[in-house]
Amino acid sequence: MKILIFFILINFITSIVFGLDKRKAIKNKWRISEKKLIFLSFFAPLGALIGMRIFHHKTKKLKFNILIPLFLVIQMCILVYLYLIYLV
């Protein structure tokens, strides 16, 4: 149960970070680096994808359009694998 709460929380935070960076981009203020956004996306790809779509942020960047769905597929495969291992 703690793992589920962690995943929900990290994905929510990642979505918010994408929104904050978009707001900073609009206001020409200090930005969150792409490296940090990608790092967060590795651990919370669903949150990153939701943040990209809701805030229309980084949607034209090829790096984000390839890596984030890839991270999501990898994470889903790992979760299914762990589920199957602990189910048997």
Descriptive overview:
- Helices cover 82% and strands 0% of the residues.
- With 88 residues, it is an all-alpha fold.
- The radius of gyration is 14 Å and the shape is elongated.
- It starts with a helix and ends with a helix.
- Helix 2 runs parallel beside helix 4 and helix 3 (45-55) packs antiparallel against helix 4.
- The protein has one domain (2-87).
- The protein contains 4 helices and no strands.
Essential attributes:
mainly alpha, elongated, 0% strand, 4 helices, 88 residues, 82% helix, single chain
What gap, in angstroms, lies between the N and C termini?
A: 19 Å
**Mean residue pLDDT:** 94
Structural class, from helix and strand content?
A: mainly alpha
Q: Which strand-content bin applies to the residues?
A: under 5%
How can the largest sheet be summarized?
none
Low-confidence stretches: none
Please give the domain count.
1
User: In sequence order, what are the helices and strands, one letter per element?
Assistant: HHHH
- Helical percentage: over 70%
Number of helices: 4
Shape: elongated
Number of E strands: 0
Q: How big is the Rg?
A: 14 Å
How are the SSEs ordered, and which strands pair?
Blueprint: H1 2-26, H2 34-43, H3 45-55, H4 62-87
Helix pairs in contact: 1-2, 1-3, 2-3, 2-4, 3-4
